[in-house]
């Protein structure tokens, strides 16, 4: 479903991605973790072409992302993305946020887009919030709207870029619950996150990155259950982030 | 286009009748601008600090007073000062003085709000920290707040001064012989080259104003604040 | 006491002048808003062949006095035109459009309108640009992630937010247009300042003539200010940057 082959990227002379390779299968839930500045966010943003890369190849659903002539907007329309800082459009109400891309990108009718939006709003537990402005919602509610906004586009996979890092601690749970539910329904998901409890519960696979390189890429059980099989850096990282 | 009208009258454009008569032209524009820039800077600081230090009715009264000068057209204020200053002072105030008073009042009112905003932009913790060290309000302002706030305000000062230079052209209406006035004089005398004359005069203003604008931009970049056009 | 008041005839002059001031500033503000948006987009164009000329244009119009610009349009520009065009522009014309009779305005009205519009547009363009910069970069990224094409990102996400952010400074520019319209008296346009000067010369009642004109200006500026506050209260997304 997603193939990443030997991808490298530089900012000037700094190498931010270093020969990254992995494959993500249909229905798989992959958690990407690592210290800050390790290139996790950059890597998942290369998947929908928000970050260009200098070397290597990325294929999503049979479409090569980096190839010249690729219709990136068309690709992005079916790859959902959720950002750290929500990025709801503040001038639009919740339901208009959900409907905008359905109408102008997918060409759905306004009514159809709103009906679908209402459906997904109910699924993330925000029935009755349709006509609020984003500024009137809590952070956790905003992030759930952002997830619903991505789901409205019928994505073939979902990318999460530290979806809970900007949230107050008491709101992290409500967002993770929605993500767990989504994973249970068989959605293909790539999540950059520090929430190791979430990773342990739902990750089919864990990718550990440091200094732009993928140092570890293994099944979730192995990552949390077999510390001796992990590279040194990953062990240090786990020792710091896991509760003792 | 025939720019000989410029070269023939160059000294008149730049200096007016000086040294045989009163200073005029671009030089008088500079004198007007520098004097009103200084005076408006002082007024802006005084009123801005006053805005920051007053509360309630006194603050509201000050806001209204400054609001008057921000709402009145420069031209109308020049009419007023032209008419009122001799009554207030009891003697004939020269046109140059009239214009400087009007420009300083308007520039000062705008700058007062920039100074006030600059003072308010500092976190309240700075006032509290100064107070905790035993500094009084005036001392806190003098040693802690203004040194931090002034660099933030500098771009708005420069932008206001650019506006002043342009507004000094309004001295024309009461017959002060600055650059715009001598331009219309030469244009009326020669009759045939208005395009060349007004292009040249615009160029002079442009050189003065845009060099100040570049300075404002450089300072804004250095201190990381956005230069807001006025 | 009564002889302290202005005769109705002179009050009428002032009201006529006020009407010209309102009409001129409203027309110039509307035209300058449209032109300012275009100039802002040109200034932000990805190619320097558009962005740099736009920058030069804006800098030229912002850094020269409006008075000199008005003199240029009134005296200088007409000297560049062919004689027949100048004669036509100065001659009275009259058309019938549907039910309205349209009268061709005298040349000083044209020069005043063009001068005030171009001057104001340059400032409005900068306000729009500040508004565009006030839209966080993440908003553009999020819109692209949803599959919006570049022009759709502008149309649905950046411009609507930039307009909301720029509305308060935009109203400030409209106030400036009202105040700056007073400069057109220098090219003989009979607006409010011109009228007050005329009334003063005829009656020597300086206080009354300038006082009424000043009150009318301040009243107009105050109405725009109140309209802005009302708009912001009614719609909380006006004037605020994202979050």
TrEMBL record, chain A:
<dbReference type="InterPro" id="IPR027417">
    <property type="entry name" value="P-loop_NTPase"/>
</dbReference>
<dbReference type="InterPro" id="IPR017871">
    <property type="entry name" value="ABC_transporter-like_CS"/>
</dbReference>
<feature type="domain" description="ABC transporter">
    <location>
        <begin position="2"/>
        <end position="236"/>
    </location>
</feature>
<dbReference type="InterPro" id="IPR050086">
    <property type="entry name" value="MetN_ABC_transporter-like"/>
</dbReference>
<keyword id="KW-0547">Nucleotide-binding</keyword>
<keyword id="KW-0029">Amino-acid transport</keyword>
<dbReference type="Pfam" id="PF00005">
    <property type="entry name" value="ABC_tran"/>
</dbReference>
<comment type="similarity">
    <text>Belongs to the ABC transporter superfamily.</text>
</comment>
<keyword id="KW-1003">Cell membrane</keyword>
<keyword id="KW-0813">Transport</keyword>
<dbReference type="InterPro" id="IPR003439">
    <property type="entry name" value="ABC_transporter-like_ATP-bd"/>
</dbReference>
<keyword id="KW-0472">Membrane</keyword>
<dbReference type="GO" id="GO:0016887">
    <property type="term" value="F:ATP hydrolysis activity"/>
</dbReference>
<protein>
    <submittedName>
        <fullName>Amino acid ABC transporter ATP-binding protein</fullName>
    </submittedName>
</protein>
<dbReference type="GO" id="GO:0005886">
    <property type="term" value="C:plasma membrane"/>
</dbReference>
TrEMBL record, chain B:
<dbReference type="GO" id="GO:0043190">
    <property type="term" value="C:ATP-binding cassette (ABC) transporter complex"/>
</dbReference>
<feature type="transmembrane region" description="Helical">
    <location>
        <begin position="197"/>
        <end position="220"/>
    </location>
</feature>
<feature type="transmembrane region" description="Helical">
    <location>
        <begin position="95"/>
        <end position="119"/>
    </location>
</feature>
<dbReference type="InterPro" id="IPR010065">
    <property type="entry name" value="AA_ABC_transptr_permease_3TM"/>
</dbReference>
<keyword id="KW-0812">Transmembrane</keyword>
<dbReference type="GO" id="GO:0006865">
    <property type="term" value="P:amino acid transport"/>
</dbReference>
<keyword id="KW-1003">Cell membrane</keyword>
<dbReference type="InterPro" id="IPR000515">
    <property type="entry name" value="MetI-like"/>
</dbReference>
<comment type="similarity">
    <text>Belongs to the binding-protein-dependent transport system permease family. HisMQ subfamily.</text>
</comment>
<keyword id="KW-0472">Membrane</keyword>
<protein>
    <submittedName>
        <fullName>Amino acid ABC transporter permease</fullName>
    </submittedName>
</protein>
<feature type="transmembrane region" description="Helical">
    <location>
        <begin position="140"/>
        <end position="162"/>
    </location>
</feature>
<keyword id="KW-1133">Transmembrane helix</keyword>
<feature type="transmembrane region" description="Helical">
    <location>
        <begin position="62"/>
        <end position="83"/>
    </location>
</feature>
<dbReference type="Pfam" id="PF00528">
    <property type="entry name" value="BPD_transp_1"/>
</dbReference>
Automatic annotation (TrEMBL), chain C:
<dbReference type="GO" id="GO:0043190">
    <property type="term" value="C:ATP-binding cassette (ABC) transporter complex"/>
</dbReference>
<feature type="domain" description="ABC transmembrane type-1">
    <location>
        <begin position="18"/>
        <end position="225"/>
    </location>
</feature>
<dbReference type="Pfam" id="PF00528">
    <property type="entry name" value="BPD_transp_1"/>
</dbReference>
<keyword id="KW-0812">Transmembrane</keyword>
<comment type="similarity">
    <text>Belongs to the binding-protein-dependent transport system permease family. HisMQ subfamily.</text>
</comment>
<keyword id="KW-0813">Transport</keyword>
<feature type="transmembrane region" description="Helical">
    <location>
        <begin position="66"/>
        <end position="89"/>
    </location>
</feature>
<dbReference type="InterPro" id="IPR000515">
    <property type="entry name" value="MetI-like"/>
</dbReference>
<keyword id="KW-0472">Membrane</keyword>
<feature type="transmembrane region" description="Helical">
    <location>
        <begin position="20"/>
        <end position="45"/>
    </location>
</feature>
<dbReference type="GO" id="GO:0022857">
    <property type="term" value="F:transmembrane transporter activity"/>
</dbReference>
<keyword id="KW-1003">Cell membrane</keyword>
<dbReference type="InterPro" id="IPR010065">
    <property type="entry name" value="AA_ABC_transptr_permease_3TM"/>
</dbReference>
<dbReference type="GO" id="GO:0006865">
    <property type="term" value="P:amino acid transport"/>
</dbReference>
<dbReference type="InterPro" id="IPR043429">
    <property type="entry name" value="ArtM/GltK/GlnP/TcyL/YhdX-like"/>
</dbReference>
């Amino acid at each position: 479903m997603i193939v990443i082959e030997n991808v490298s990227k530089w900012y000037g002379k700094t190498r931010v991605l270093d020969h990254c390779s992995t494959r993500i299968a249909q229905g798989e839930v992959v958690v990407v973790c690592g210290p800050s500045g390790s290139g996790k966010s950059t890597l998942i943003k290369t998947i929908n072409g928000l970050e260009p890369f200098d070397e290597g190849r990325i294929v999503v659903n049979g479409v090569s992302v980096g190839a010249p002539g690729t219709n990136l907007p068309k690709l992005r329309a079916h790859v959902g993305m959720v950002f750290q800082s929500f990025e709801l459009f503040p001038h639009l109400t919740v339901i208009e946020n959900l409907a905008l891309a359905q109408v102008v990108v997918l060409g759905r009718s306004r009514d159809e887009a709103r009906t679908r939006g209402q459906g997904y709003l109910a699924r993330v537990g925000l029935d009755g919030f349709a006509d609020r402005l984003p500024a009137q919602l809590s952070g956790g509610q905003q992030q759930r709207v952002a997830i619903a906004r991505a789901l409205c586009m019928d994505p073939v996979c979902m990318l999460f870029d530290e979806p809970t890092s900007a949230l107050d601690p008491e709101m992290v749970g409500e967002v993770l619950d929605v993500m767990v539910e989504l994973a249970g329904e068989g959605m293909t998901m790539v999540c950059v996150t520090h929430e190791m409890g979430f990773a342990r519960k739902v990750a089919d696979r864990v990718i550990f990155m440091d200094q732009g390189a993928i140092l570890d890429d293994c099944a979730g059980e192995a990552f949390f259950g077999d510390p001796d099989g992990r590279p040194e850096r990953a062990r240090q990282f786990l020792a710091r982030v896991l509760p003792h | 286009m025939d720019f000989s009208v410029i070269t023939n009258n160059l000294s008149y454009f730049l200096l007016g009748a000086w040294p045989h008569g009163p200073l005029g032209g671009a030089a008088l524009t500079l004198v007007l601008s520098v004097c009103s820039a200084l005076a408006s800077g002082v007024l802006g600081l005084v009123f801005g600090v006053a805005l920051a230090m007053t509360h309630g009715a006194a603050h509201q009264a000050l806001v209204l007073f400054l609001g008057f000068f921000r709402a009145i057209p420069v031209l109308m204020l020049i009419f007023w000062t032209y008419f009122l200053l001799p009554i207030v002072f009891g003697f004939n105030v020269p046109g140059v003085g009239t214009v400087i008073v009007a420009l300083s009042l308007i520039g000062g009112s705008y700058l007062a709000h920039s100074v006030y905003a600059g003072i308010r932009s500092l976190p309240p913790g700075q006032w509290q920290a100064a107070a905790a060290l035993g500094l009084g309000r005036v001392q806190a302002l003098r040693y802690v707040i203004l040194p931090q706030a002034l660099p933030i305000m500098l771009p708005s000062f420069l932008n206001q001064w650019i506006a002043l230079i342009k507004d000094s052209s309004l001295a024309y209406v009461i017959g002060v012989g600055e650059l715009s006035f001598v331009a219309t004089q030469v244009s009326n005398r020669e009759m045939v080259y208005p395009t060349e004359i007004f292009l040249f005069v615009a160029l002079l203003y442009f050189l003065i104003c845009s060099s100040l604008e570049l300075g404002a931009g450089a300072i804004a970049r250095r201190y990381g604040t956005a230069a807001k056009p006025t | 006491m009564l002889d302290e008041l202005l005769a109705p005839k002179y009050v009428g002059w002032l009201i006529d002048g006020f009407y010209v001031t309102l009409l001129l500033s409203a027309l110039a503000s509307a035209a300058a808003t449209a032109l300012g948006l275009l100039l802002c987009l040109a200034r932000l164009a990805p190619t320097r062949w558009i962005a740099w000329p736009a920058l030069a244009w804006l800098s030229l119009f912002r850094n020269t006095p409006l008075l000199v610009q008005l003199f240029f349009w009134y005296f200088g520009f007409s000297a560049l035109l062919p004689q027949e065009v100048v004669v036509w522009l100065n001659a009275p014309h009259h058309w019938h459009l549907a039910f309205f009779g349209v009268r061709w305005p005298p040349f000083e009205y044209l020069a005043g309108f063009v001068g005030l519009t171009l001057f104001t547009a340059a400032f409005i363009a900068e306000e729009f640009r500040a508004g565009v910069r006030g839209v966080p970069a993440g908003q553009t990224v999020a819109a692209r992630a949803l599959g919006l094409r570049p022009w759709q990102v502008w149309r649905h996400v950046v411009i609507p937010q930039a307009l909301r952010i720029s509305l308060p400074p935009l109203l400030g520019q409209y106030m400036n247009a009202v105040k700056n319209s007073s400069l057109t008296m220098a090219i003989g346009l009979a607006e409010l300042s011109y009228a007050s000067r005329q009334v003063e010369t005829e009656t020597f009642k300086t206080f009354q003539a300038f006082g009424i004109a000043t009150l009318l200006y301040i009243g107009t500026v105050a109405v725009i200010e109140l309209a802005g506050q009302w708009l912001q209260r009614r719609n909380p997304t006006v004037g605020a940057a994202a979050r």
